[in-house]
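Batch manifest, entry 17 of 40.
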Amino acid sequence: MGVFFNLIGLLTIFPFIPFILAYYWNYRVTRNKKTAIKMGMDVTTFFLYIIVAVLIDLVLKPQAIGGIYLLLFMLIVAIGLLGGAQARLKGQVNMARVMRAVWRLSFVMLTVLYLIFVPIGFVMHL
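Output type: structure tokens
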């Protein structure tokens, strides 16, 4: 069981590793780069949520709300905004499309936050 948790910890600390693994595996199966990139993004987003939440807690200290709660709040707001926009434009909400769009936008947002918080956390804890 310890090896499993060590592997998950490693994949969380270095989120580019799950991206590369998911991309490689999916590309080998489908031979489609576009699908492989999307799969890599989807898998990596899960690990980015974990590490960015930890980094928010680490950088902002306990005085701020927990990082995971902040990220979940932002996720719920994004779902509401995209769902509302889709309802206004199309007259109905396709929840699968909304969730996919939010998940992929989360990848971009979390990657930027990761790239901001990693150097800050590193410098703070030298």
